[in-house]
Amino acid sequence: MKTRNHLFFIAVVVFGTAACAQSWPTQPVKLVVPFPAGGGTDVLARAITEKLATRLGQPVQVDNRAGASGNIGADYVAKAAPDGNTILLAATMIATYKLTYTKLPFDALTDLVGAGTVAETPNVLVVPPSSPIRNLLQLAAAARAKPGGLNYGTAGLGSPQHLGTEQLAKLGHFTLQHIAYKGTAPAVIDVMGNQIDVGSISLTAVLPQIEGKKVHPLAVLSAKRSTLAPDIPTASESGFAGMDSSVRFLIMVPAKTPPAIVAKLNAELNHVLADPAVKQAFTRIGYEAYPSNPQESTAMVRREYEVLGPVINSLNLEKQ
Protein backbone atom coordinates (compact mmCIF):
# COMPACT_ATOMS: atom_id res chain seq x y z
CA MET A 1 0.00 0.00 0.00
CA LYS A 2 2.84 2.37 0.89
CA THR A 3 4.54 1.66 -2.44
CA ARG A 4 1.30 2.29 -4.32
CA ASN A 5 0.72 5.55 -2.46
CA HIS A 6 4.32 6.58 -3.11
CA LEU A 7 3.96 5.94 -6.85
CA PHE A 8 0.67 7.83 -6.86
CA PHE A 9 2.37 10.80 -5.18
CA ILE A 10 5.18 10.79 -7.76
CA ALA A 11 2.67 10.66 -10.61
CA VAL A 12 0.76 13.61 -9.17
CA VAL A 13 3.96 15.64 -8.87
CA VAL A 14 5.16 14.77 -12.39
CA PHE A 15 1.84 15.47 -14.10
CA GLY A 16 1.28 18.55 -11.97
CA THR A 17 4.67 19.97 -12.96
CA ALA A 18 4.03 19.23 -16.64
CA ALA A 19 0.63 20.90 -16.47
CA CYS A 20 2.19 23.90 -14.76
CA ALA A 21 4.75 24.24 -17.57
CA GLN A 22 2.04 23.93 -20.21
CA SER A 23 0.09 26.81 -18.69
CA TRP A 24 3.17 28.95 -17.89
CA PRO A 25 3.28 31.89 -18.04
CA THR A 26 -0.04 33.12 -16.70
CA GLN A 27 1.25 36.61 -15.89
CA PRO A 28 3.84 39.08 -17.26
CA VAL A 29 7.44 37.86 -17.16
CA LYS A 30 10.01 40.17 -15.61
CA LEU A 31 13.37 40.18 -17.43
CA VAL A 32 15.89 41.67 -15.02
CA VAL A 33 18.78 43.53 -16.65
CA PRO A 34 21.39 44.14 -13.95
CA PHE A 35 22.76 47.24 -15.70
CA PRO A 36 21.40 50.71 -16.52
CA ALA A 37 18.96 51.40 -19.34
CA GLY A 38 20.66 52.21 -22.63
CA GLY A 39 23.75 50.05 -22.07
CA GLY A 40 24.76 47.08 -24.20
CA THR A 41 23.03 44.49 -22.01
CA ASP A 42 19.84 46.54 -21.96
CA VAL A 43 19.86 46.89 -25.76
CA LEU A 44 20.23 43.12 -26.13
CA ALA A 45 17.30 42.54 -23.78
CA ARG A 46 15.04 44.93 -25.63
CA ALA A 47 15.93 43.31 -28.96
CA ILE A 48 14.25 40.06 -27.85
CA THR A 49 11.45 41.07 -25.48
CA GLU A 50 8.72 41.87 -28.00
CA LYS A 51 9.09 38.63 -29.97
CA LEU A 52 9.60 36.58 -26.79
CA ALA A 53 6.37 38.06 -25.41
CA THR A 54 4.55 37.01 -28.57
CA ARG A 55 5.88 33.47 -28.24
CA LEU A 56 4.97 33.24 -24.53
CA GLY A 57 1.58 34.93 -24.81
CA GLN A 58 2.40 37.32 -21.97
CA PRO A 59 4.25 40.66 -21.78
CA VAL A 60 7.99 40.46 -21.09
CA GLN A 61 8.96 43.54 -19.10
CA VAL A 62 12.55 44.74 -18.80
CA ASP A 63 13.43 45.64 -15.21
CA ASN A 64 16.76 47.51 -14.90
CA ARG A 65 18.30 46.80 -11.50
CA ALA A 66 21.79 48.23 -11.77
CA GLY A 67 24.57 48.28 -9.21
CA ALA A 68 27.60 46.40 -7.93
CA SER A 69 28.67 45.34 -11.44
CA GLY A 70 25.38 43.52 -11.97
CA ASN A 71 25.24 41.74 -8.64
CA ILE A 72 22.20 43.60 -7.28
CA GLY A 73 20.00 42.41 -10.15
CA ALA A 74 21.45 38.91 -10.07
CA ASP A 75 20.81 38.61 -6.33
CA TYR A 76 17.22 39.77 -6.84
CA VAL A 77 16.58 36.97 -9.34
CA ALA A 78 18.46 34.36 -7.28
CA LYS A 79 16.07 35.06 -4.39
CA ALA A 80 12.90 35.33 -6.52
CA ALA A 81 10.16 32.71 -6.56
CA PRO A 82 11.26 29.81 -8.82
CA ASP A 83 8.19 30.03 -11.03
CA GLY A 84 9.68 31.31 -14.29
CA ASN A 85 8.16 34.75 -13.86
CA THR A 86 11.42 36.48 -12.91
CA ILE A 87 14.40 35.83 -15.19
CA LEU A 88 17.87 37.35 -15.57
CA LEU A 89 20.01 38.41 -18.53
CA ALA A 90 23.56 37.83 -17.33
CA ALA A 91 27.10 37.48 -18.64
CA THR A 92 28.48 33.93 -18.53
CA MET A 93 31.32 35.08 -16.27
CA ILE A 94 28.81 35.80 -13.48
CA ALA A 95 30.13 32.90 -11.37
CA THR A 96 33.59 34.50 -11.14
CA TYR A 97 32.17 37.40 -9.15
CA LYS A 98 32.39 35.38 -5.96
CA LEU A 99 36.17 35.55 -6.40
CA THR A 100 36.23 39.33 -6.73
CA TYR A 101 33.64 40.39 -4.12
CA THR A 102 34.06 39.90 -0.38
CA LYS A 103 30.38 39.62 0.54
CA LEU A 104 28.43 38.31 -2.42
CA PRO A 105 24.88 37.44 -1.29
CA PHE A 106 24.35 34.73 -3.91
CA ASP A 107 26.29 31.97 -5.68
CA ALA A 108 25.68 31.77 -9.41
CA LEU A 109 26.77 28.13 -9.45
CA THR A 110 24.14 26.99 -6.98
CA ASP A 111 21.43 29.66 -6.80
CA LEU A 112 20.87 30.13 -10.53
CA VAL A 113 20.70 27.90 -13.63
CA GLY A 114 20.89 28.68 -17.31
CA ALA A 115 17.81 28.60 -19.53
CA GLY A 116 19.77 29.23 -22.72
CA THR A 117 22.41 31.52 -24.18
CA VAL A 118 21.39 34.65 -26.08
CA ALA A 119 24.32 36.34 -27.83
CA GLU A 120 28.07 36.68 -27.97
CA THR A 121 30.77 39.00 -29.23
CA PRO A 122 34.40 37.86 -29.12
CA ASN A 123 37.22 39.75 -27.50
CA VAL A 124 39.82 40.90 -30.00
CA LEU A 125 43.41 42.13 -29.74
CA VAL A 126 44.16 45.22 -31.82
CA VAL A 127 47.28 47.32 -32.38
CA PRO A 128 47.92 50.75 -33.93
CA PRO A 129 48.10 50.65 -37.73
CA SER A 130 51.80 51.62 -37.57
CA SER A 131 52.72 48.77 -35.22
CA PRO A 132 55.28 46.29 -36.59
CA ILE A 133 53.33 43.52 -34.82
CA ARG A 134 50.87 42.03 -37.32
CA ASN A 135 49.78 38.74 -35.70
CA LEU A 136 49.65 36.91 -32.38
CA LEU A 137 52.86 34.94 -32.92
CA GLN A 138 54.76 38.19 -33.46
CA LEU A 139 53.16 39.64 -30.33
CA ALA A 140 54.17 36.62 -28.26
CA ALA A 141 57.73 36.73 -29.62
CA ALA A 142 58.07 40.47 -28.91
CA ALA A 143 56.68 40.04 -25.39
CA ARG A 144 59.03 37.14 -24.60
CA ALA A 145 62.02 39.13 -25.90
CA LYS A 146 61.17 42.00 -23.56
CA PRO A 147 59.19 40.69 -20.56
CA GLY A 148 56.80 43.35 -19.31
CA GLY A 149 58.00 45.75 -21.98
CA LEU A 150 54.77 45.71 -23.95
CA ASN A 151 51.49 46.96 -22.54
CA TYR A 152 47.83 46.45 -23.31
CA GLY A 153 44.71 48.38 -22.39
CA THR A 154 41.25 47.17 -21.41
CA ALA A 155 38.00 48.59 -20.08
CA GLY A 156 39.10 47.83 -16.52
CA LEU A 157 40.44 45.45 -13.89
CA GLY A 158 38.68 42.10 -13.90
CA SER A 159 36.91 42.82 -17.19
CA PRO A 160 36.42 39.90 -19.61
CA GLN A 161 39.09 41.43 -21.83
CA HIS A 162 41.57 41.71 -18.94
CA LEU A 163 41.04 38.12 -17.86
CA GLY A 164 40.98 36.83 -21.43
CA THR A 165 44.30 38.46 -22.28
CA GLU A 166 45.92 37.11 -19.13
CA GLN A 167 44.57 33.67 -20.04
CA LEU A 168 46.19 34.02 -23.47
CA ALA A 169 49.48 35.16 -21.95
CA LYS A 170 49.58 32.11 -19.69
CA LEU A 171 48.94 29.83 -22.65
CA GLY A 172 51.71 31.50 -24.63
CA HIS A 173 54.19 31.86 -21.73
CA PHE A 174 54.66 35.61 -22.07
CA THR A 175 53.76 38.71 -20.06
CA LEU A 176 52.17 42.03 -20.94
CA GLN A 177 51.77 45.08 -18.72
CA HIS A 178 48.08 45.77 -18.09
CA ILE A 179 46.65 49.29 -18.24
CA ALA A 180 43.14 49.49 -16.81
CA TYR A 181 41.01 52.25 -18.32
CA LYS A 182 37.69 53.48 -17.02
CA GLY A 183 35.70 52.15 -19.93
CA THR A 184 36.31 50.91 -23.44
CA ALA A 185 36.29 54.20 -25.39
CA PRO A 186 39.51 55.67 -23.91
CA ALA A 187 41.34 52.39 -24.51
CA VAL A 188 40.30 52.40 -28.17
CA ILE A 189 41.32 56.05 -28.54
CA ASP A 190 44.78 55.34 -27.12
CA VAL A 191 45.33 52.39 -29.45
CA MET A 192 44.41 54.57 -32.42
CA GLY A 193 46.72 57.29 -31.11
CA ASN A 194 49.65 54.89 -30.66
CA GLN A 195 49.67 55.60 -26.93
CA ILE A 196 49.53 51.91 -25.97
CA ASP A 197 50.93 48.82 -27.69
CA VAL A 198 47.81 46.64 -27.72
CA GLY A 199 44.11 46.99 -27.00
CA SER A 200 42.04 44.07 -25.75
CA ILE A 201 38.51 45.09 -26.67
CA SER A 202 35.16 43.44 -27.31
CA LEU A 203 34.60 43.19 -31.06
CA THR A 204 31.31 45.05 -30.79
CA ALA A 205 33.15 48.11 -29.41
CA VAL A 206 35.99 48.26 -31.94
CA LEU A 207 34.54 46.84 -35.16
CA PRO A 208 34.00 50.29 -36.77
CA GLN A 209 37.66 51.18 -36.13
CA ILE A 210 38.79 47.84 -37.58
CA GLU A 211 36.67 48.35 -40.68
CA GLY A 212 37.99 51.91 -41.00
CA LYS A 213 41.59 50.63 -40.67
CA LYS A 214 42.16 52.88 -37.68
CA VAL A 215 43.42 49.83 -35.75
CA HIS A 216 44.82 46.51 -36.93
CA PRO A 217 43.34 43.27 -35.53
CA LEU A 218 45.72 40.49 -34.48
CA ALA A 219 43.14 37.82 -33.61
CA VAL A 220 39.81 37.21 -31.96
CA LEU A 221 40.15 35.28 -28.71
CA SER A 222 37.00 33.20 -29.28
CA ALA A 223 37.03 29.52 -30.22
CA LYS A 224 35.69 30.26 -33.70
CA ARG A 225 35.81 33.16 -36.12
CA SER A 226 33.11 35.77 -35.89
CA THR A 227 30.67 36.08 -38.78
CA LEU A 228 30.85 39.84 -38.19
CA ALA A 229 34.57 39.87 -39.04
CA PRO A 230 35.32 36.54 -40.74
CA ASP A 231 38.77 37.59 -41.99
CA ILE A 232 40.17 37.93 -38.46
CA PRO A 233 41.83 34.65 -37.38
CA THR A 234 41.25 33.05 -33.99
CA ALA A 235 43.92 32.67 -31.33
CA SER A 236 43.67 28.89 -31.75
CA GLU A 237 44.46 29.23 -35.45
CA SER A 238 47.45 31.32 -34.43
CA GLY A 239 48.93 28.59 -32.26
CA PHE A 240 47.09 29.09 -28.94
CA ALA A 241 45.01 25.93 -28.81
CA GLY A 242 42.06 25.98 -26.41
CA MET A 243 41.83 29.77 -26.19
CA ASP A 244 38.24 30.96 -25.90
CA SER A 245 37.35 34.40 -24.56
CA SER A 246 34.11 36.09 -25.55
CA VAL A 247 31.48 38.28 -23.97
CA ARG A 248 28.50 35.92 -23.84
CA PHE A 249 25.06 36.52 -22.40
CA LEU A 250 22.50 34.00 -21.21
CA ILE A 251 19.11 33.85 -19.55
CA MET A 252 19.25 32.54 -15.97
CA VAL A 253 16.48 31.56 -13.56
CA PRO A 254 16.31 30.61 -9.87
CA ALA A 255 17.84 27.16 -9.34
CA LYS A 256 14.61 25.48 -8.20
CA THR A 257 12.60 26.53 -11.25
CA PRO A 258 10.81 23.41 -12.59
CA PRO A 259 12.79 21.87 -15.48
CA ALA A 260 9.66 21.82 -17.65
CA ILE A 261 9.33 25.60 -17.36
CA VAL A 262 13.03 26.04 -18.11
CA ALA A 263 12.67 23.81 -21.17
CA LYS A 264 9.68 25.79 -22.44
CA LEU A 265 11.47 29.11 -21.92
CA ASN A 266 14.49 27.74 -23.78
CA ALA A 267 12.41 26.53 -26.73
CA GLU A 268 10.68 29.88 -27.14
CA LEU A 269 13.95 31.79 -26.68
CA ASN A 270 15.61 29.75 -29.44
CA HIS A 271 12.67 30.46 -31.75
CA VAL A 272 13.24 34.17 -31.14
CA LEU A 273 17.00 33.91 -31.75
CA ALA A 274 16.32 32.25 -35.12
CA ASP A 275 14.23 35.21 -36.26
CA PRO A 276 16.04 37.17 -39.02
CA ALA A 277 14.90 40.49 -37.57
CA VAL A 278 16.45 39.63 -34.19
CA LYS A 279 19.68 38.48 -35.82
CA GLN A 280 19.80 41.77 -37.72
CA ALA A 281 19.20 43.75 -34.53
CA PHE A 282 22.07 41.89 -32.86
CA THR A 283 24.37 42.47 -35.84
CA ARG A 284 23.74 46.22 -35.69
CA ILE A 285 25.22 46.30 -32.18
CA GLY A 286 28.04 43.86 -32.92
CA TYR A 287 26.59 40.64 -31.47
CA GLU A 288 25.75 37.25 -32.92
CA ALA A 289 22.73 35.21 -31.84
CA TYR A 290 23.86 32.21 -29.81
CA PRO A 291 21.12 29.60 -29.24
CA SER A 292 21.78 26.65 -26.94
CA ASN A 293 20.00 24.37 -24.49
CA PRO A 294 19.77 24.88 -20.70
CA GLN A 295 22.48 22.33 -19.94
CA GLU A 296 24.94 23.97 -22.33
CA SER A 297 24.31 27.45 -20.97
CA THR A 298 24.71 26.31 -17.36
CA ALA A 299 27.92 24.49 -18.31
CA MET A 300 29.29 27.69 -19.87
CA VAL A 301 28.95 29.50 -16.56
CA ARG A 302 30.76 26.71 -14.74
CA ARG A 303 33.47 26.60 -17.39
CA GLU A 304 34.06 30.36 -17.04
CA TYR A 305 34.53 29.83 -13.31
CA GLU A 306 36.88 26.89 -13.78
CA VAL A 307 38.98 28.56 -16.48
CA LEU A 308 39.04 32.13 -15.20
CA GLY A 309 39.17 31.30 -11.48
CA PRO A 310 42.88 30.40 -11.54
CA VAL A 311 43.60 33.49 -13.67
CA ILE A 312 41.82 35.74 -11.15
CA ASN A 313 43.60 34.12 -8.22
CA SER A 314 46.99 34.55 -9.90
CA LEU A 315 46.39 38.28 -10.39
CA ASN A 316 45.71 38.87 -6.67
CA LEU A 317 42.94 41.32 -7.51
CA GLU A 318 41.70 43.33 -4.56
CA LYS A 319 38.20 42.20 -3.69
CA GLN A 320 35.44 44.78 -3.81
What class, by secondary structure content?
A: alpha/beta
Major sheet description:
10 strands, mixed
Rg over CA atoms, rounded to whole Å, is: 21 Å
Q: Compute the number of helices.
A: 10
Low-confidence stretches: 10-14
Q: What is the helix fraction of residues, given as a range?
A: 40-55%
Shape: globular
Order of helices and strands: HEHEHEEHEHEHEHEEHHEH
How widely separated are the two ends?
57 Å
Number of strands: 10
Strand content: 15-25%
The overall average pLDDT, rounded, is 92
In short:
The protein is α/β, with parallel strands linked by helices.
Describe the protein in words:
This protein has 320 residues and is α/β, with parallel strands linked by helices. Helices cover 42% and strands 19% of the residues. It is built from ten helices and ten strands. Strands 1, 2, 3, 4, 5, 6, 7, 8, 9 and 10 form a ten-stranded mixed β-sheet that branches. Helix 2 links the parallel strand 1 and strand 2. The model is unreliable at 10-14 (pLDDT under 50).
